[in-house]
Design a protein that fits this description.
Radius of gyration: 33 Å
Distance between the termini: 88 Å
Strand order of the largest sheet: 12-13-14-15-22-19-18-17
Oligomer: single chain
Helix content: 25-40%
Number of helices: 27
Amino acid sequence: MTARTALPSPALGLFLCGLAWAAVLLGCSERAPASVSVAPVVAGLTRPGLDARTRGLVLLGELGCVQCHQQSPDQPQADPHRGPDLATAGGRVRGGYMIRFLADPQRAEPGTTMPDLLRALDAGARLDAASALAEYLRSFGAPADEAREPADPLAAQRGRRLFHEIGCAACHAPRDEAGTESPLAGSVPLGPLADKYTLQGLRAFLLAPLTARPAARMPDLHLSPSEAHDLGHYLLAPGPSDGADGAVAPAALAATKVAVGRALFAERGCVHCHALPDPDRASSRTAQALRELDSARGCLSGAQGSWPYYALTQDQRADIVAALAAADAPLTDERRIQQHLAARNCTACHQRGEFGGIAPERNPYFVSTDPSIGPEGRVPPPLTGVGAKLQRPWLVDAVAHGQSVRPYLRTRMPAFGAAFGEELAGWLERVDQLPPIALTLLPEDEDQARAVTNLGRELVGDKGMSCHTCHTFAGELSGTIGAVDLVDSTAQRLRPEWFAHFLRTPLEFKPGTLMPQYFPGGVSVRPELGGGDTARQIDAMWHYLAGGRNVRKPSGLQRSPIELVVGDETVILRRAVQNTGKRGISVGYPGGVNLTFDAEHLGLNQLWWGRFLDASPVWSEQGSGEARILGKERATLPNGPAFVVLAGAATPWPAASRRDLGHGFLGYDLDAEQRPVFRYVCEDVTISDAPIAVREALAPENARLILRRTLTFASGADKTLQFRAARDASIEQRGADRVQVGKSLLLRLPPSSFRIRPADDQQELLVEIAIRQGRAELAIDYAWREELR
């Protein structure tokens, strides 16, 4: 490839003078160490099944060749994938690392696809040029706060599990307990991340990688903030290498250096691959067209010059030459798809025909939450024929945004962005075709349509094919296997023609599948239904399942309970539960006393004794159900806000929500026995709410387990709060320190701290909390009266 314009001497003179600070920042002498040569790694090219020309086209796109060298409209197109958006680089990357990387990218990050743009300069000039470029990039936003956060070993341990289960290890090298990478072929190098990122910068990148890298070389794995936190601690452990920078406050921008970096950014060709909001900046001259290149010169020569230097292997160079030599030859549609899949390393997880699939050495890192499903429960689905299987909008969405219908897969389908989703889906839809099968439309007449869907319901149920034995149905699981939900997305996801083909011959589509053959040789195994007509039965099943979650459940569908059993340790479930919204926090204590704290309304709103919860509605219905309370001895308490300031003794309890009152939930901590301590703010008072289970005789006739709740109050000013401890049709005082609520709940409170007052057609138990000198404490015991069951 032809050379770009060399650095002009006037600019060189500017940055060679007075820039010795770069050497100090790098912790080295006045001259940089000699450059190294490490071949760029493009992970998707290491798998068998690609020809040399396709590999070369991928390299032309991934190495940025087609960003400088124009392609002809009539030749097969290498994908012009741009590099990272550098407008935010100064806020993501440590300043010293940025300089080291620009000065010698292959030394700083072995295997990077970034070429060495300064290799022809001597060591000192290379450092000065890198420093000027870094200063220019730093001018686009606030530089990174390089203060180092303390290590969190528990977070790192959780991050290690995430790294090796959700798909990171499909592209990057797995690591052992000591953090040493396994030398697996095709692993995308991570480089010295502790040198490059602060924890804050890495977290931000992991949460939104497509913002920094819109070409989706790093896809979005849909991490939650806590997952990004855990992965960040894991990837940055054990900490910076000896060459990493200390937490040095960034120096003020030097206008002269920024101007030099700006000129270099254009002159060295950075402008072709990286976006920066600098429209008035000059651009470098246009390079030769791709088809006119001499492969013995420039970037492909292996020699150093003013052109970008790539440490290509002999095989990589040969692949690029093969792609250039066949520039005018047609490229089959299937090869085009392979080029797309290889460029984004999709074949690390998926197989299409004989191309790709999980490498044996990475196989252990693909796991399932439901081993009963077998290999299909842990291995991402094949892409063979997927363009004929999935409807175009769903397929685009799956690639662009990572949509998934297989919650049992621990490996996540990442998001690659809308542009890649549209392009790949278009090629797949064009190539993958099935012989036409005409499905009968659902009749417009309501009675006739109902007859069709009723037949489908009967076929899906236990009197027909018993499909719900292996599949979930609208989130419900009746068997031991929970394969893809039958109705959740059938009509939006699948093409009806594929559905008809698949039911007839499932093994042709998925060799080894657990899906039974209900129509062997085209003959139904249920000849007594629908006249035994295969086409009629399949059409009926499609129309029934296409009705979505609103269809009547098939006969025989029974949800298996998933009981959370409390042993020697407290159990917490943060999901919706009976009588509480989605922000319910249910706690089961050893011995058989349980509670739910409503984080939305800021109140402990129910207590029960005995068994804890059936979690199947929230674990089997994709979050749409409510966990079911199993204990029979249950008492309800008034929902929040539980603590307010009242103007007078007769002032009614406010109807406003806790949000209207400015009250806020602060989360909870766990004590040494893993019991939660809830924290929240009411009326500018910070409250710690610590319930525990205690075995104590609350009354002579009752020696059962009780719940003891200790509340502490902290305030910057003296204040008197009212606590509404109970609201019921019947509240009676049973002694100086005891109150009976309803027929069965007994409370013990500090004497003279409470009063009972009417509230509409019910009664309220109010407790006064006087906060003096910034602090107060309240202890309440709750018990179930056995003799009143």
